[in-house]
Structures are given as structure tokens and as C-alpha cells.
Amino acid sequence: MSAREFDLAAANGEAKQRLVTSLRGKGAHLSYEDAVRDFPARLINTRPDHVPYTFWHQLEHIRIAQLDMLRYIADPQYVSPPWPAGYWPDTHATADESAWKKTIAAYCADLEELITLIEDPSCNVLAPVSHMEDRSIMRSALVLVDHTAYHVGEFVMARQILGEWKSELSRSV
């Protein structure tokens, strides 16, 4: 094969590896699991100053958005919920420690389901998918990576502001 030829199978394999790495929060992203590790239960329903949602609201939003994308990719009949109400818990909703853990477990289970779909040997993440308006699975997964990274960053910044996150930078700067 010359340098001008394109090996679709190799490109698909490389894309899959990079997507899985990014979805798991590796590389340039902090993982969801690292962000929520050792989170103090007393702050689950805290709404930091100037923030319209609680820590639990934010994790639930990340979970709902991920589940929406998983269903969008996997099910041609799926209809997304209305924006924004269908993607956030009610502003007055609260969670206890059990609901917090349930949100985290559901996020992790849905993530593994998405990764299993991507890693399936028959899955071409680069190909347009007709029920997805001819968008590729790669495009949809990258939207999810960006969305999750954005909100995980917000989550950790709010933890820092409240003094509940020890940044590695504070040890090296």
C-alpha cells in the first residue's frame, strides 16, 4: 500500500482506541471517576454561589446527556427529550447519598455500554449512520467527550472553590 492509499480498517481501529481513551477521561481529560472520588456527602445538594445547580444536579445532567447519546447511537427509533428540561433534574430536586451513588453507577454502566458498542468489531465509527442524520458514531462520541469534559471541569472547579479538591498544581507551583 502506498502512502497515498487509505487503510479504512486501520483508521477505524485507531479512531476506536482514541474514542475509548477519551470517553474514559484519559489523556488530557480528568476522568469522571476521579472528579467524584472522595466527594463529601454533605455537599451533594450544595449550590455554589452564582451556580444555578447543585453538585448532584450536575452529575445527573452528565448522566442523562450520556444516556441520551447512547440511545441516539444505538436505537433508530429513539427520540431525545426536550431541551433543557429533559436533560436536567428539577431545580428543586435533591439527592441523598443513595441517589448520588445510583447516579454515579448508572453513568459508569452506560459508559461501559457505549464503549462495548464502539469496540464491537462490526462497528465502523467513521461511517455515516442513516438514523443519525448521516452523522458518524465518532462525531457523536466526540460531542459526548467534550460535554462530559466541560462539566467535569466545572464540577472540579466548584470543588476547588469550596476547598474540597486538592489540586496537583498547588504542590508544584
Notes on the protein architecture:
This protein is an all-alpha fold and about 170 residues long. The protein has a single domain (about 10-165), classed as Four Helix Bundle (Hemerythrin (Met), subunit A) (Up-down Bundle), CATH 1.20.120. It has 6 helices and 2 strands; from the N terminus they run ααααββαα. It has helices spanning about 10-25, 30-35, 55-75, 95-120, 135-160, 170; strands spanning about 130, 135. It has a two-stranded antiparallel sheet. β1 (about 130) and β2 form a beta hairpin. α1 packs parallel to α5 (about 135-160), α3 packs parallel to α4 and α3 packs antiparallel against α5. The longest helix has 25 residues, at about 135-160. It is globular and about 55 Å long.
Characterize the main sheet.
2 strands, antiparallel
CATH class: Mainly Alpha
The total number of structural domains is 1
Quote the average pLDDT: 93
| CATH architecture classification | Up-down Bundle
**Ends: how far apart?**
49 Å
What portion of residues is helical? 40-55%
Low-confidence parts, pLDDT < 50 over ≥5 residues? none
Query: Using DSSP, what is the number of strands?
Result: 2
